[in-house]
C-alpha cells in the first residue's frame, strides 16, 4: 500500500464534514504534537482547504520562523501571528494548524475561539521530545536543556490548551489513526452548541 493515501471510512468523513459545517477546525497544542501533519491529513479527508499558520507567516514575511525570532524577537512574532490568525479565520470551512504558542497568547486565543472549533492534540513529553529533537527549526528549543524547556512549556501551557473544545491524544501510532480520531471528535459535536 506504499504511496497510497489511506482513506477514512466514508461515513465517518461525511458525519465529520456535516458536523463541521461552515466552521473552521483549529488545531492547537505543543510543538511536535502533530498539528501540521495531522491537520493536513484531516483537511484532505474532509476536502476542505488546509492552512498552517506558521507557513502563512513565513509566506507573508518571506522569512523562516527561526529568522523572524532572531531578527525581531518573540513579541513581534506573536503580534504578526495574531494578525495572520485573525485573517485566516475570517471564512470557513478550513482546517488551520497553529504554531504551539498561538493559543497561549491572549489576543490570538480570542481570535481562535471566535474563529472555529478548537481541538487540542495532546501528547506526553517522550512523544513530543522524540519528534522535536529530530529537527532544529524551533527557536524556543535552542536552549541548553531543550527537553527541560519543553517540559516547562508543557507545565505552563497545558492548562490553557485544555480550554479547547475537543481533545485528542497524539501518540506513537499511525498518523491516519490520530486523524480518524479527530474526525470522530468533530462528528460527535453534531447537534451540540460547540
Ligand atoms: N502519529 C503521529 N502523529 C503526528 N505526527 C507524527 C506522528 N508520527 C510521526 N510524526 C511526525 O512528528 C513530527 C512533528 O509533527 P508536526 O506536525 O510538525 O507537529 P507540530 O506542528 O504540532 O509541531 C512530524 O515530522 C510528523 O511527521
Ligand atoms: O510553541 C511555540 O511557541 C512555537 C511553535 C512553533 O510551531 P509548532 O508548534 O508547529 O512547532 C512555531 O510557531 C514557533 O517556533 C513557536
Ligand atoms: Mg507545526
TrEMBL record:
InterPro entries: P-loop_NTPase, Shikimate/glucono_kinase, Shikimate_kinase/TSH1, Shikimate_kinase_CS. Binds 1 Mg(2+) ion per subunit. It is found in: Cytoplasm. It comes from the Bacteria. ATP binds at residues 32-37, 138. GO terms for biological process: amino acid biosynthetic process; aromatic amino acid family biosynthetic process; chorismate biosynthetic process. Pathway: Metabolic intermediate biosynthesis; chorismate biosynthesis; chorismate from D-erythrose 4-phosphate and phosphoenolpyruvate: step 5/7. The keyword Nucleotide-binding applies. Substrate binds at residues 54, 78, 100, 157. GO terms for molecular function: ATP binding; magnesium ion binding; shikimate kinase activity. It catalyses: shikimate + ATP = 3-phosphoshikimate + ADP + H(+). GO terms for cellular component: cytosol. CDD domains: SK (cd00464). This is Shikimate kinase.
Amino acid at each position: 500500500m506504499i504511496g497510497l493515501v489511506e482513506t477514512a471510512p466514508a461515513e465517518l468523513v461525511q458525519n465529520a464534514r456535516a458536523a463541521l459545517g461552515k466552521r473552521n477546525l483549529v488545531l492547537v497544542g505543543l510543538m511536535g504534537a502533530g498539528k501540521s501533519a495531522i491537520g493536513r491529513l484531516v483537511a484532505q479527508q474532509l476536502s476542505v482547504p488546509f492552512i498552517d499558520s506558521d507557513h502563512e507567516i513565513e509566506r507573508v514575511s518571506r522569512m523562516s520562523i527561526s529568522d523572524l525570532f532572531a531578527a525581531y524577537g518573540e513579541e513581534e512574532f506573536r503580534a504578526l501571528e495574531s494578525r495572520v490568525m485573525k485573517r485566516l479565520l475570517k471564512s470557513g470551512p478550513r482546517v488551520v494548524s497553529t504554531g504551539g504558542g498561538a493559543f497561549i497568547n491572549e489576543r490570538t486565543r480570542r481570535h481562535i475561539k471566535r474563529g472555529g472549533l478548537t481541538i487540542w492534540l495532546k501528547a506526553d513529553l517522550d512523544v513530543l521530545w522524540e519528534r522535536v529533537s529530530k529537527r532544529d527549526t524551533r527557536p524556543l528549543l535552542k536552549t541548553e536543556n531543550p527537553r527541560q524547556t519543553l517540559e516547562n512549556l508543557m507545565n505552563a501551557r497545558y492548562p490553557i490548551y485544555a480550554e479547547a473544545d475537543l481533545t485528542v491524544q497524539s501518540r506513537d501510532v499511525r498518523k491516519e489513526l490520530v486523524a480518524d480520531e479527530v474526525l470522530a471528535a468533530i462528528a460527535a459535536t453534531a447537534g451540540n452548541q460547540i
